[in-house]
Amino acid sequence: VAVDCTLGYGGHAQEILPRLQPGGKLLGLDADPIELPKAEARLRAFGFGSEIFTAHRSNFAGLSKILVQAGVNGADIILADLGVSSMQIDDPARGFSLKHEGPLDMRLNPQRGQPASVFLQTIDSHALAALFVENADEPHAGVFAAALAGKVFATTSSLATAIRAALPRSKKSDSDLSVRRVFQALRIAVNEEFSALETFLRNMPLCLNPGARVAILTFHSGEDRRVKKSFEAGVRDGAYEEISPKVIRPTAAERNSNPRSVAAKLRWARRPA
Questions:
Q1: Phi then psi for 28, rounded to 5 degrees?
Q2: Is the Cβ–Cβ distance between 136 and 182 less than 8 Å?
Q3: How far is CA 216 from the centre of its chain?
Q4: Which stretches of 11-161 are assigned E, i.e. beta strand?
């Protein structure tokens, strides 16, 4: 039994499913009500029926609940690819990207929580500055927080303009980095991603069969730090028998062919047999 905790477009699932045959099955989790049906249809078109693959609308923090609902005692393989999928980034209506004008939303599940535009209107500058540091390691957190907290930004471009205006003398490359960091920090906050990750990591050992493996891809230091600490603690308390000795990064060839992999970090852990 394998679980893809962040199904996305189904790319990982498409590679995993043939390797589970004969007799294995994959549970695919995703909180996005827009993209999940598309991914399921895509995998069905490749010939993966319901006896091999099932899709479940859930955040990965709900993994243990999904296993119970599926009648599965535990998983042998768990994969989580954190962050935002390419389909979400490339859809202007979702408000994740600066490539195209779109509403300032950023919710992975548009049916839950509040969009980033409302979040900014209701947070004070001190809390926002702390959030920029914690979620994005932003060196100008205080400056941006003072410029953005309590303000109204309806679109992605209006927010990006305000970020750049807060540091008018910055080089364009530095300004672009700050825009990306602020967008990242807001996305993480709006979706409560760190809280979900901590729940996921805390429940992980109980979801794994003896000898099972978990692999987690992160794209931000805050994510990687939480995964690293959880795995190291798991080794100390016996929840894990072995963990990756160091973080695994994409090769130069992969970074060249897939620029979005540049920030990726992979860590794995194995349960005692």
A1: -110, 125
A2: yes
A3: 10
A4: 26-30, 53-57, 75-81
Q: What is the DSSP letter of 265?
A: E
Q: For 151-166, what is each residue's pLDDT tens digit? A: 999 999 999 999 999 9
Question: What pLDDT digit, counting tens, does each position of 3-43 carry?
Answer: 999 999 899 999 999 999 999 999 999 988 888 999 999 99
Q: How far apart are CA 117 and CA 103, in angstroms?
A: 8
- Rounded distance, CA 248 to CA 231, Å? 14
Banded pLDDT at 70 (limits 50, 70, 90) = very high
Cα separation, 199 vs 66, whole angstroms: 14
Q: Could you tell me which residues are beta bridge partners of residue 242? A: 270
Cα 264 from Cα 11, distance rounded (Å): 16
Distance CA 189, CA 107 (A): 10
CA 231 to chain CA centroid, Å, is 18
Under 8 Å between Cβ of 226 and 219: no
φ/ψ of residue 67, rounded to 5: -60, -40
Q: How far is CA 152 from CA 93, 118, 128, 165, 171, in A?
A: 18, 8, 14, 15, 26
